Task: inverse folding
């Protein structure tokens, strides 16, 4: 059970409410070497192109947001086990959030109690992505294409609703206005995530009457459904309550009903269920304890799995499996794509979300999930009793150690015909350490070196980036990526390449968590270091926060990030306990500005 | 290329591939001359984008003794049948990208059709610098405000594997920070074109109007309780919804919907050639049915990892574009890719030329503009942007190769608008010159 209250020593950091200043600092991840990229004036690997007026000249960045170098991310300060983090209650700005495609389909399903379901959003455009996430409140907005999609989807849903009407309201056979109103009240409350206001109700009544005049009861109800599903009260999550003026310096506490909606979309990507709505309507959903109790319930519901998968796909870029091309004697284009993704998702579900799961298991478990097709590729004999779905688990200690050694991930982070040490190093830095490295200067030749059967990939890439100008930045990347040379572009484990023994040593360099810095040997040791790093934990907190809160972290978010990180620290790196801590954070419970309007 | 028949001959549909869309079996008997209100053929604009710079020597023609005397080089060769309808414009620079946030690809793709800088933001470019969306409306959307109001779709944005959902894959903007996403799936685009509006009867139109009116009331009920940010965001949403109601009701010439194209994975090197063909055909069908008069066709995202195995070109897009000029093998791969895009533009021109309009064809009244966010990929230069105009436009004398001395591409954008009957004097960023280009007429 998750315990927020600390047992052990209270650590420092005055700005976050700690008593001593030993954790002082902005919490922002800065890499000293980051600055090097801007000074580069020569190309790496290749000579500059012969033509082009600005060849070989790299302009310095012209507009760097104050204090934040390009590419920087913020991770929370480490929190010791048992620590609590007290924030000021100032909250962060709250912006209306348009449903994503996943949220739309889930919400329609749950508004109508699972009686109808479908992938209605297939006709919607993809969401704009910010740092990999399509959930950003500012960047996901209505467009003509999406509005037409909302219209067409609502029409299709209403057709289904009419077919299923007897299963949705008891009075369907009566086919009168009273029944339509009962329908509007019940399903309107679910769609709008609160009871209808008088004027909302009267607009629906008016529409029902007009529809009925055109085509009878069913037409009236159909139009009512279409209106519900195209109303901003359904399509957006909006905080509109006019709370009392908060004490100076503090934010506005969200209303219970707003918290119910935040909680259900946080854990389920869907509308609140009856229990959440009832708790909120009864005024029993605002203390941290009340929120934590509901959070535990929501995360235990299977609907949370869909949310977590959606997060994983965006965090780790799994959408790219769709278009992956890997060339070798064994794999033709696309032959393993769906299986690699399935295998990887099963592993993460097992290691991060399953029994005893957490950050440590994510990076140290020797397990892989394979079907017969993948097993043949990796030279594994399937057990006699393969489950009906075709996938079985096998432990490969020494060879595999967690996420970074998963066959699917290594295949994803590769070139078509060879491994991709640079991509792999950048992945570790950006997605796992939240220290995205700067990209190469514009004159660099980014073509991977030609495959050559007389050398190793490491040798070819190192030759490519050996010049002094390149080496300073590549130290940030290569020290992480080159040890993963133990896996080829199909995710196969290897100790030699072209008959040459592989050098899998590396260096963790310029990281914020100095306890993991230094040289190491091989992917297993790299993974073990990451498994115990507060920086990795903090980065996972940041990545999830971007996804769930729909924001890129700013100074104002940092304290709440630390509150979430305390969930990791207090529960031995349990991912789900971190989520429960995040919904009790100030950023989740408060917003920074008031809504306007009449008192 | 004069035509006298008002009907689209069946043989042309088959010849140019519309038969595969089913157009031939359900010929859209679209007789523009039967529409008395349209004595003058409508003007149209189609923007075409390709990323990461070009191979200059093969893109530009070799100049001869006069403007009209030029020889197409390898990228332009597929357009040879329409040589007298091409207008190459060399020497246009994108000065607007010199300042403002973002990296070279971002600034180029954002500024190409807006003549605006980027907003601050968190999208990351290839050099690590960050930026947001372009800070202004793009020329197609500006033009659509003038000439796009009489059709069901104000504009149509199509893409071929332009799958990145950020600034690198947006060329069209309805306003500052307000991009229009391209549709990369022909089957999705087909549904939008031919089932959302076409074939909608009066009863459904009336129902939709009732629903939209009711939705507007729900907005009104929320409005007093919204923050300023939310009020703006939801007002924009409501404006779009109200626009649907208006567009739904514009009078439409009769048009029989073709059967749907097949469902294809929209980010796949084995389907992209087919998708490009289908998008060209859909564009032709949309214009034949007069469903839109403003469109864009976007090949890929700025910076991408796309390969062309069907052209034996297996380098990945952006990496390839950074090859040294002396890497002849890489250069050859880039030439065949750009030539492939020229082939698709030629197919579009052929299709438009097969649609009779007045005394000529729809091609006479359609201006196609092909651009790129960079001049050269390997140096990220913003000079000599490869601009090609094709088709026809008011006061445009086609069949020429013009060479300017560092003229501003903003001026071209203004001229594009004027060529389709939109009387702009300037366009975009005030610091970047945009008075009309001289010498086009």
Result:
């Amino acid at each position: 059970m998750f315990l927020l209250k600390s047992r052990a020593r209270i650590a420092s950091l005055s700005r976050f409410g700690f008593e001593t200043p030993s954790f002082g600092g902005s919490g922002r991840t800065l890499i000293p070497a980051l600055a090097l990229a801007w000074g580069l004036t020569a190309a790496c690997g290749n000579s500059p192109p012969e033509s082009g007026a600005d060849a070989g000249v790299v302009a310095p960045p012209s507009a760097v947001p104050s204090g934040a170098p390009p590419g920087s991310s913020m991770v929370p300060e480490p929190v010791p086990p048992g620590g609590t983090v007290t924030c000021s209650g100032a909250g962060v700005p709250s912006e209306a959030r348009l449903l994503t495609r996943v949220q739309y389909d889930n919400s329609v399903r749950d508004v109508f109690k699972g009686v109808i379901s479908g992938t209605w959003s297939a006709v919607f455009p993809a969401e704009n992505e910010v740092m990999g996430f399509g959930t950003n409140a500012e960047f996901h907005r209505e467009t003509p294409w999406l509005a037409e999609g909302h219209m067409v989807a609502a029409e299709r849903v209403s057709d289904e609703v009419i077919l299923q009407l007897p299963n949705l309201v008891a009075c369907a056979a009566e086919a009168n206005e009273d029944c339509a109103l009962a329908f509007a009240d019940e399903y309107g409350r679910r769609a709008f995530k609160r009871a209808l206001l008088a004027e909302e109700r009267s607009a629906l009544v008016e529409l029902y009457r007009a529809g009925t005049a055109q085509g009878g009861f069913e037409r009236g109800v159909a139009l009512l459904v279409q209106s519900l599903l195209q109303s901003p009260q359904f399509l957006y999550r909006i905080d509109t309550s006019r709370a009392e003026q908060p004490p100076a310096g503090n934010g506005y506490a969200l209303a219970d009903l707003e918290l119910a909606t935040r909680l259900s979309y946080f854990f389920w990507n869907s509308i609140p269920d009856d229990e959440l709505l009832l708790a909120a309507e009864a005024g029993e959903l605002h203390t941290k304890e009340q929120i934590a109790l509901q959070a535990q319930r929501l995360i235990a519901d299977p609907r949370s799995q869909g949310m977590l998968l959606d997060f994983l796909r965006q965090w780790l870029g799994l959408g790219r499996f769709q278009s992956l091309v890997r060339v070798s004697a064994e794999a033709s284009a696309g032959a393993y794509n769906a299986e690699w993704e399935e295998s990887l998702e099963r592993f993460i579900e097992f290691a991060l979300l399953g029994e005893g799961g957490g950050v440590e298991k994510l990076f140290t478990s020797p397990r892989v999930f394979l079907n017969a097709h993948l097993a043949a590729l990796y030279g594994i004999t399937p057990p006699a009793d393969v489950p009906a779905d075709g996938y079985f688990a096998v432990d490969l200690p020494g060879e595999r150690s967690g996420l970074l050694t998963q066959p699917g991930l290594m295949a994803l982070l590769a070139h078509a015909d060879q491994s991709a040490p640079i991509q792999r190093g950048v992945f570790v830095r950006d997605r796992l350490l939240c220290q995205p490295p700067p990209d190469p200067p514009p004159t660099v030749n980014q073509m991977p070196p030609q495959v050559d059967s007389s050398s190793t990939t490491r040798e070819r890439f190192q030759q490519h980036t050996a010049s002094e100008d390149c080496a300073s930045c590549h130290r940030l990347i290569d020290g992480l990526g080159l040890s993963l040379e133990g896996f080829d572009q199909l995710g196969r484990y290897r100790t030699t390449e072209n008959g040459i023994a592989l050098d899998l040593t590396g260096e963790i360099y310029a990281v914020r968590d100095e306890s993991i810095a230094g040289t190491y040997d091989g992917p297993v040791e790299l993974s073990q270091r990451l498994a115990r790093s507060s920086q990795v934990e903090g980065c996972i907190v940041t990545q999830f926060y971007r996804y769930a809160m729909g924001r890129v972290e700013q100074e104002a978010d940092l304290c709440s990030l630390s509150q979430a990180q305390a969930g990791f620290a207090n529960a031995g790196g349990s991912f789900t306990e971190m989520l429960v801590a995040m919904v009790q954070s100030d950023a989740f419970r408060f917003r920074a500005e008031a809504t306007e309007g009449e008192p | 290329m004069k035509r006298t028949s008002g009907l689209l001959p069946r043989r042309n549909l088959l010849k140019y591939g519309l038969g595969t869309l089913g157009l031939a079996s359900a010929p859209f008997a679209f007789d523009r001359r039967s529409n008395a209100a349209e004595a003058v053929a409508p003007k149209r604009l189609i923007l075409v984008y390709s990323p990461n710079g070009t191979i200059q020597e093969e893109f530009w023609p070799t100049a001869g003794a006069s403007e009209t005397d030029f020889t197409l080089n390898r990228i332009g060769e597929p357009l040879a049948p329409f040589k007298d309808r091409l207008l190459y414009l060399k020497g246009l620079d994108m000065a607007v990208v010199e300042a403002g946030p973002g990296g070279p690809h971002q600034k180029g793709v954002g500024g190409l059709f807006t003549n605006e800088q980027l907003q601050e933001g968190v999208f990351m470019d290839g050099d690590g610098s960050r930026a947001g969306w372009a800070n202004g409306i793009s020329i197609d959307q500006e033009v659509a405000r003038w000439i796009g109001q009489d059709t069901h779709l104000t504009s149509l944005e199509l893409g071929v594997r332009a799958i990145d959902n950020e600034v690198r894959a947006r060329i069209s903007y309805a306003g500052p920070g307000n991009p229009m996403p391209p549709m990369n799936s022909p089957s999705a685009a087909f549904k939008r074109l031919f089932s959302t509006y076409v074939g909608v009867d009066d009863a459904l139109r009336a129902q939709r109007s009732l629903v939209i009116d009711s939705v507007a009331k729900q907005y009104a009920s929320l409005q007093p309780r919204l923050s300023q940010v939310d009020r703006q965001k939801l007002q924009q949403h409501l404006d779009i919804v109200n626009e649907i109601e208006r567009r739904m009701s514009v009078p439409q010439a009769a048009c029989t919907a073709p059967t749907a194209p097949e469902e294809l994975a929209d980010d796949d090197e084995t389907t992209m050639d087919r998708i490009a063909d289908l998008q060209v055909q859909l564009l032709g069908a949309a214009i034949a049915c007069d469903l839109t008069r403003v469109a864009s066709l976007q090949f890929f995202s700025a910076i991408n990892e796309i390969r062309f195995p069907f052209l034996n070109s297996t380098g990945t897009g952006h990496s390839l574009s950074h090859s040294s000029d002396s890497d002849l093998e890489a250069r050859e791969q880039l030439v065949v890719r750009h030539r492939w895009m020229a082939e698709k533009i030629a197919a579009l021109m052929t299709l438009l030329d097969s649609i009779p309009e007045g005394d000529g064809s729809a091609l006479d009244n359609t201006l196609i503009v092909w651009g790129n966010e960079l001049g050269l990929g390997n140096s990220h230069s913003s000079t000599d942007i490869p601009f090609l105009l094709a088709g026809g436009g008011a006061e445009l004398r086609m069949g020429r190769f013009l060479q300017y001395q560092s003229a501003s591409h903003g001026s071209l954008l203004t001229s594009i608008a004027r060529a389709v009957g939109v009387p702009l004097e300037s366009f975009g960023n005030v610091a970047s010159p945009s008075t009309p280009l001289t010498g086009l007429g």
